[in-house]
Amino acid sequence: HAAIDQANSEGDTPLYAACKKGHNDCVQLLLAAHAAIDQSDNDGITPLQVKSACAIPAGSRGWRWSTRWPY
């Protein structure tokens, strides 16, 4: 799984970038391919933390992800 978790110079993996940019279909594909959710970028932030920051409750359907990033 090394290629799927390959980071760029800022430490961003494909999963991190997909989470940050709100590409939820890509996130699902990467997770299905076992991309690491706990590999942090150069600032120590993981894809899981990025998505958690954008999560909003969706009632009885559980959680859904916001496609807006706070900055």
What can you tell me about this protein's structure?
The structure is a single chain. The chain has 71 residues and is mainly α. It is 35% helix and 8% strand. It is built from three helices and two strands, in the order αααββ. It has helices at residues 14-21, 24-32, 47-54, and strands at residues 55-57, 63-65. It has a two-stranded antiparallel sheet. The protein is globular and about 25 Å long. It starts with 13 loop residues before the first helix and ends in a 6-residue tail after the last strand.
Pattern of helices and strands: HHHEE
Major β-sheet profile: 2 strands, antiparallel
Termini separation (Å)?
Answer: 31 Å
The low-confidence parts are: 56-71
The count of DSSP E runs of length 2 or more, i.e. the number of strands, is 2
In terms of structural class, how would the helical and strand content be classed? mainly alpha
Order of neighbouring strands in the sheet with most strands: 1-2
Any idea what the radius of gyration is?
12 Å
C-alpha geometry: globular
The amount of helix comes to 25-40%
Oligomer: single chain
Q: Roughly what is the average pLDDT, rounded to an integer?
A: 78
Strand share of the residues?
A: 5-15%
